[in-house]
Amino acid sequence: MDFAERRGALFYNKAVTSPPPLYHRIAEELRQRIELGELAPGEVLEPVRAAAARLGVNLHTVRHAYAELARAGLVESRRALGTRVVRTPLDPGDPAHFDERIERTCVELGISPRELHARLGARLAAERAERSVVWVVECSALQCEELAASLRARWDVDARPFPLTNPGEPQGSAVVATFFHYNELRVRWPHRLASAHFVTIRPDRNIIRHLGGSPDRRRTVVLAELDAPTLDAVHADVAAVLPVERFRIDPVRVRRPAELLRSGRRAPILFPPRLWSRLSPAEREDPRAHLLTYVFDPAELDALGAKLGLAGALSTTS
């Protein structure tokens, strides 16, 4: 579609209040063609008289449009050579390109950048108020917040943590919990079980980078937990993540997590979230202490969003 064929797209409906000036609409059409690469650097624009005749406007309108493009550094006009394109297409990811588009949008809408910001803020606040609320249930407040944050990062959802240490139950919204706490939810909230969504979590594999170890020499890693059943379950989870040729796991049941740091052990110690929360800030700074973070299984996180009918978070959409 050439410039003349797109003429209809240049002119706003007469019912629209305070449309941008005609010259600006013509300039905007040419600007878009330059940015898309349809008009390459060195290419000469249509002569003013010919463009005016084709568009059915006066010569001054076209001259004004070309002058606007020249002020933006997109074209240059020479009496003998006409008006030619001088700028290469902008990268859409370039901040300068983004700022320029905002300025042009404000001109088109007839509002200031401050008013645009206010309107967009109000629109975003309204959309947030309409988002689905999902309660993420876990035994550790720290782990609960981490999982809720990962859910918000993947999906456009108001994910809120609800530690099992809280009294009562989350009201009126979907509940997402881990399979590890299935029986606990069945006992505490049997009426919510059918509508709860259970998702697999696993230790974050990034923990390997912090533990070191090499194929030449296996490194012992201490794993702490409060009770034997939980220790067995967490041991199995960690064993699935840490390569056996690099690490040997030493599971230890403790009453107070800080006891391990005072025991003189030199090996790194993995503390699951509920134990980590019992360490003091100074104890967490001990180079042997490592937080064992759990994350949602990526495939199950995607399936959960699809099941709940969630839209992708802004950062994950194109």
Structure in words:
The chain has 318 residues and is α/β, with parallel strands linked by helices. It folds into 3 domains: 7-89, Orthogonal Bundle (Arc Repressor Mutant, subunit A), CATH 1.10.10.10; 131-203 and 298-316, Dna Topoisomerase Vi A Subunit, Chain: A, domain 2 (3-Layer(aba) Sandwich), CATH 3.40.1360; 207-292. It has 14 helices and 12 strands. It has helices spanning 7-10, 22-35, 48-55, 59-71, 95-109, 113-130, 141-154, 182-188, 207-211, 228-239, 258-262, 273-276, 281-284, 298-308, and strands spanning 75-78, 82-85, 133-138, 158-163, 174-178, 197-199, 201-203, 219-225, 247-253, 269-271, 289-291, 294-296. Strands 4-3-5-6 form a 4-stranded parallel β-sheet, covered by helices on one side. It has a 4-stranded parallel β-sheet with strand order 9-8-10-11. The chain has a two-stranded antiparallel ribbon with strand order 1-2. A hairpin with a 3-residue loop joins strand 1 (75-78) and strand 2. Helix 2 packs across helix 4 (59-71) and helix 3 (48-55) packs across helix 4 (59-71). The chain is elongated. The two termini are 26 Å apart. Residues 1-17 have low confidence and may be disordered.
